[in-house]
Amino acid sequence: MMGQLRRVAVIGGIRTPFCRSNTAFAELSNLDLMTAALNGLVEKCHLEGELIDEVVGGAVVTHSKDFNLTREAVIATELDRRTPGVTLSQACGTSLQAALGSAAKIATGQIDCAIATGSDTTSDAPIVVQKKLAQRLVRLSQAKSFSEKARIFMKGFSPSELAPVAPNVAEPRTGLSMGQHTELMAQRFHISRDAQDQLAYESHRKAAKAYDEGFFDDLIVPTAGVFRDNNLRTDIDRTKMSTLKPAFEKSERGTLTAANSTPLTDGASAVLLASEEWADQHGLRPLAYLTHGQHAAIDFVNGEGLLMAPTIAVSRMLDKAGLTLQDFDFYEIHEAFAAQVLATLQAWESPDYCREVLGKDHPLGSIDRDKLNVKGSSIAVGHPFAATGGRILATLAKILAENGGGRGLISICTAGGMGVAAILEGASPAQHAVH
What we know:
Layout: E1 8-15, E2 19-20, H1 30-45, E3 55-58, H2 69-75, E4 85-87, H3 94-107, E5 113-120, H4 131-142, H5 146-154, H6 178-188, H7 193-212, H8 238-241, E6 265-275, H9 276-281, E7 288-297, H10 309-321, E8 330-333, H11 338-349, H12 351-356, H13 378-381, H14 388-403, E9 407-414, E10 418-426
Helix pairs in contact: 1-2, 3-14, 4-5, 6-11
C-alpha cells in the first residue's frame, strides 16, 4: 500500500440503451444486460483479454440464481477470465457505491484498475411462492419414495398455497411505495405539480437535444437491436402532461404522475476506473477524476423523507472537501421523481432544514439551475435501479472532458432511506498525452 494517495481517473463508461419494463428487453436477464454493458466497455477501451483487478457491481431486482451475478457476467465477457467479480447492492446507488469502493483501493495502491457496473430488469422480476408451498417443496425433495412424496404433498394441502407472491416495490418497514413516500415529501416542501411537470419536461428536452448532437453516441452500446432509450419523448407536450392523473396519491393532493416520475426500466452500465499510471501504460486518457464520495441514511421509518438522505451525504462531503454547494460547474441529481429533485434543492435553501437536519448555522444555498442535469436525466432516459450510478458517472465525466475541465457533483437517492454522493474533477487535456 502506498503512503500517498493516488488520483483516481475515470477513463470512460458505457451503457445499454434503457428500455421501459416489458418492452424491448423483456426477454433479457440481468446477466444478459450486464454482460452487454461490460463487453461494450471492453470494446470501447480496448480491454480484450485484459486482467482487470476487480469488477464490482450488482442488481436490485434479482433471482436467487444471480447470487454471483457480477462474476458470471465477467466470465461471459472478453475480459481475462481471471478477473475477480464482486456482487453488491445498495439499491439505486449500487454502481456509484461500487465505483467509490474501488476508487478507494486505487487511491491507496491496493489495485490499479477496476470496473463499476450495475444492471436491473423489472421485466424479469422473480416470482416468489407462498412460504407454506416452499416448505412443502423442500420436504418433497427430501422424500425417498413416491408414497412418501404423495403423503407430503396431500397432507394439509390447500390450493391457496399455489398463489404466487407478486413482486412488490413497497418499503418493507412502512408498506408505502417510493412514490407514496415522495408524495409526502412533496407535501412537506409544498412542491407543486406544475414545478414537477416543468422539470420533467426539461429533462426530456435536454436528453433529446443531447441525442441530436451526438453526445450519447459513444456512451451507448446497441443491445438486442435497440440503439437508444425508448422512454425518451422527443415530442413531449407540456400541455398533455398536465392532463395526466396522479399515480400514487389519488386525492386532490396528488402531484406525482407517470410523466414526472421515472418508469420501471431495464438496462445496465459499466465504468472503467484506474490510476494515472495504469491509464498511461494502456494508452488511455482520463476524462475526469473521482475525488470524493459519501453516503448517508435517514430515519424515514419515523417520518423523515425517504429520499432526502442525499441532502445529508452532500453536506458532509462538501465539509470534507472544503467546498460550498456553489463551487460546481455541473450538478447531476438523479431524477427518481421530479419532486425528489425539487425537495432536495429546497432543503438546501432552507435555514430550518439545514439547521435541524444538517446541523448547519446557515443554509447551503441555491444552485444555478442551468447547470443541473444538462443532458437530461432519469425521468427522460429511464432508471434501471443499479445501473443509474454508472450512467451518471460516465455522463458527467464526458461533460467535464468536453468542457475542458471543471467540477461536477453527483447526488443519488436510494430505497431504504439512503443517499450516495460524489465529486468529479475535470482533467485538463494538456495534463495527459497518450503514448
